[in-house]
Amino acid sequence: MKPELSVVIPVYNEEAGLATLFARLYPALDALQMPYEIIFVNDGSRDNSVALLAEQYRQRPDVTRVVLFNGNYGQHMAILAGFEQTRGEIVVTLDADLQNPPEEIGKLIEKMREGYDYVGSIRRKRQDTAWRTVASKMMNRLRERITNIRITDQGNMLRAYGRNVIDLVNQCGEVNTFVPALAYKFARKPAEIVVEHEERAAGESKYSLYSLIRLNFDLMTGFSLVPLQMFSMLGIMLSFGSALLVLLLLARRFLFGAEAEGVFTLFAIAFFFMGVILFGIGLVGEYVGRIYQQVRARPRYVVQTILQGMPGKETEEVPAGVTIEKRQVVR
Ligand code: UDP
Ligand code: MG
């Protein structure tokens, strides 16, 4: 039977929390009384996650599918690979660490049934470290200003997407992207609801400060040219300013003769502008690097194996290491 709901979950080194996730997720979805499927995407975990996912697949092959990457391609690539496999009319994404309570999925579905094709969610009380909450607020504010994506809580992955949105996302070949923003672009009627948020059930965050900065660059450069335009504007203003300064110095040269004071002020100003220039070059580089990655058109991720199928064999024991479908490159 074709599932109505597809749940996509990226998994990267989550062995410590998977058992609890299974124990809460399946009953929560069973309670919804609609045909569903859960697609786990293993993003190259180096711990025992794959074995746990395969075991869970053996337990519930009727509703479980597992996509196995051959390496670590990042959370957003994992979600996109999951999207390609979805069959449901509604697709829900969720983190594997139980920070998004599976019991909240019902609320998303309810909202979707009111006729929306994108239901985002806002964490009622975010359970993360203080610095992340503050930094994330600032990034949300910046993104609101420089892109036309209107989502209140961008870092939150608990979201529901309609089939129309998913089909369009599946046609995109973006290498560096941010799934909630990309999907928002294609939504005809987006909405948001407030949901609960929990502390990470087990293990620790897979994002370092560095990878968080990279991710936010993906978001800003992927959905806006405003940073580049601001630099053009800044350049124009600085040119005007320095033209005025030249005129002033020229006038003083004639009025007061040669002057050589204020060398250090000049240094300070010069160093400041050097910093601005370096930042500008770096910013251009962020765009150029992404263009380079995009034009090389290498596979965005490689799916090693997909555990799925076995219709009608729900109760039978599935032998260990079974692979039903083999695929290679997916663009
Ligand atoms: N994740 C992933 N690949 C990565 C990093 C993270 O698939 O390279 C998954 C991770 O297993 C989890 C989700 O993305 O299901 C969110 O990661 P995490 O909870 O570490 O992020 P945070 O909540 O700290 O933002
Ligand atoms: Mg988390």
TrEMBL record:
Task: List the InterPro entries hit by this protein, alphabetically.
Answer: Glyco_trans_2-like, Glycosyltransferase_2, Nucleotide-diphossugar_trans
Q: Describe the location of the Glycosyltransferase 2-like domain by residue ranges.
A: 6-164
User: Which GO terms are recorded in the biological process aspect for this UniProt protein?
Assistant: lipopolysaccharide biosynthetic process
What residue intervals traverse the membrane? 230-251, 263-288
SUPFAM superfamilies, from UniProt? Nucleotide-diphospho-sugar transferases
Q: Which GO terms describe its cellular component?
A: plasma membrane
Q: Which domain of life is it from?
A: Bacteria
Query: One MF term from GO for this chain?
Result: undecaprenyl-phosphate 4-deoxy-4-formamido-L-arabinose transferase activity
Q: Which terms are listed as keywords in the entry?
A: Cell membrane, Glycosyltransferase, Lipopolysaccharide biosynthesis, Membrane, Transferase, Transmembrane, Transmembrane helix
One Pfam match, by short name? Glycos_transf_2
The UniProt entry, under PANTHER family, shows: UNDECAPRENYL-PHOSPHATE 4-DEOXY-4-FORMAMIDO-L-ARABINOSE TRANSFERASE (PTHR48090:SF3), UNDECAPRENYL-PHOSPHATE 4-DEOXY-4-FORMAMIDO-L-ARABINOSE TRANSFERASE-RELATED (PTHR48090)
Q: What is this protein called?
A: Glycosyltransferase
